[in-house]
Design a protein that fits this description.
The protein contains 16 helices and 13 strands. It is an alpha/beta fold and 491 residues long. Helix 1 packs across helix 3 and helix 7 crosses helix 12.
Length: 491
């Protein structure tokens, strides 16, 4: 089958590249275009739709990167994604996720003291600390001006919508639809005090004491703490591969209430889940009646192509709770995040936040709403994406020079790099000693073992590459090599 160019319609909303991307993607997802169908050539598309070849090629390249299309020499592009019949009909997905009485009942905090996880030991921010953006590159003058604009508004001192500041939710809804293909309205967004609170609330929404939930290992330690605090039975899935959690890993899992995962950029190993695996995991969750909680903590900073469409968007907003944060894209000190949930859950999510925290500061929300709607946020992301790509490339170059036998992970996205020491060094690797000596020099990378909750513990470190100068980065890697006895390569 060959797709005729006159069947492709641009919406007139957004950039021309975005319109073409959506015009090609939507018929595929709806099943109108079958696997194996051939698209018109880029030349024909450009001519028929009156677009530049660069615009057409950019949209096609994104669809190839996401796994929808495959280039064929001499034939153009063909559709390679095989979707299950009627898979994306929201009614089928929604019916398989009907809220049980237990899932809609408040979780009681009656855990015994000995079962509570220990709080993390406070530590100062240091060089190479993971998760810290480049604080020197933030547009402070613009942010200060926006804060001052709203500081004297008396209405901001009065209680507002329990979901959060409406203009912020409206701006965020539009942004998420365009950047992450999230399927939502402003009435399905809850502003939270950071992504951590969003994950905790999501766990309370989908599971109660004793329920089985799944998470990644290596994975996010604070998510594990949140699940432990609610006395949930946690199962761990191997996420160390290049694609993160796979559908094969889930084949033997049953009777699970929820699966928590980071498909956009696995934390911390850096796997980026391809479209085929996303579809397979969505199908598994639908069959099991299992909720998915998608932690989209820093997928904006992918360097090879645009972020792959979110699980939430692929599922048309059903059966998936989407959690995001501004700590990586802007400043950690803002402590602002958001949760996107189906309409049936969002008011309960708001009630939980009101009970455990109260209102998220309106002044910060108002300034952020203007920061997004006036285009500052998009410009800042474009700038930071280029900057972080340069820093990531430098970090990989220096790591390969000073730690030539070490394995590098998380190479194509994000603000950190994973350094895994060689197999011959695994037994002799002294993580606490390494941390102690690095801390004395002002460095604070994390041990890879911190993120592992099951299976064999791998020796290595996770380093932040964003908030550090090239000279300090090189010195830090030299120190790691010297302490661990690595033999650097000389250029």
């Amino acid at each position: 089958m060959r797709i005729e160019p006159d069947s492709i319609r641009l919406s007139g909303e957004g950039s021309l590249q975005w319109q073409l991307y959506q015009a090609l993607r939507q018929p595929l997802l709806s099943g109108l275009w079958p696997s194996g169908a051939l698209l018109p050539s880029s030349r024909v598309l450009a001519s028929e739709l009156q677009l530049s070849r660069n615009t057409v090629n950019a949209a096609l390249a994104q669809l190839v990167a996401e796994g929808y299309l495959q280039g064929q020499p001499g034939r153009g592009y063909c559709i390679i994604t095989q979707l299950p019949d009627a898979y994306f009909q929201a009614s089928r997905v929604a019916n398989s996720h009907g809220l049980s009485q237990s899932a809609s009942t408040n979780t009681k905090a009656n855990s015994s003291a000995e079962k509570l996880p220990q709080a993390a030991t406070p530590s100062k921010t240091g060089l190479l600390e993971p998760g810290v953006p480049d604080l020197s590159a933030f547009p402070y003058r613009i942010w200060q001006r926006l804060l001052q604009r709203h500081a004297t508004r008396p209405l901001l001192g009065v209680g507002g919508d329990v979901l959060g500041y409406l203009p912020l939710r409206q701006a965020l809804s539009l942004y998420l639809q365009q950047s992450r293909q999230v399927h939502c309205t402003e009435q399905q967004i809850l502003i939270t005090a950071g992504a951590q609170q969003g994950l905790y609330v999501a766990a309370m929404l989908v599971a109660t004491r004793g329920d089985k939930v799944l998470m990644e290992s290596p994975g996010y330690g604070r998510l594990r703490q949140a699940l432990q605090l609610q006395d949930l039975a946690i199962g761990y899935l191997d996420a160390a591969g290049p694609e993160g959690v796979t559908a094969e890993d889930l084949a033997a899992q049953q009777h699970c209430k929820a699966l928590f995962l980071t498909p956009g950029h696995q934390y911390p190993m850096g796997g980026i889940m391809p479209l085929s695996q996303r579809l397979a995991i969505l199908q598994w969750a639908q069959q099991q009646g299992c909720w998915l909680v998608e932690d989209d903590y820093d997928s904006e900073f992918q360097f090879k192509h645009r972020p792959v469409a979110s699980l939430q968007g692929l599922a048309q907003g059903q059966g998936v709770i989407f959690v995001g944060s501004f700590s990586k894209t802007m400043l950690p000190a803002l402590r602002l995040g958001y949760l996107v949930a189906p309409t049936a859950l969002i008011q309960r999510a708001a009630a939980i936040v009101q009970a455990i925290h109260g209102d998220v500061p309106l002044l910060t929300q108002a300034a952020l709403a203007d920061f997004i709607s006036e285009g500052h946020f998009s410009r800042h992301l474009r700038k930071m994406r280029k900057l972080y790509q340069q820093k990531q490339q430098l970090a990989q170059q220096l790591a390969s020079q000073y730690l030539p036998d070490w394995q590098l992970h998380a190479l194509h996205a994000g603000l950190h790099l994973v350094l895994r020491c060689p197999a011959a060094m695994q037994s002799s690797f002294d993580g606490p000693l390494l941390q102690q000596r690095l801390a004395a020099a002002g460095y604070a990378p994390a041990l890879l073992s911190k993120y592992q909750f099951s299976g064999e513990t791998a020796a290595g470190v996770v380093i932040g590459i964003a908030n550090i100068s090239p000279a300090d980065l090189e010195r830090g890697l030299q120190l790691i090599a010297a302490i661990c006895g690595a033999a650097p390569q000389h250029p």
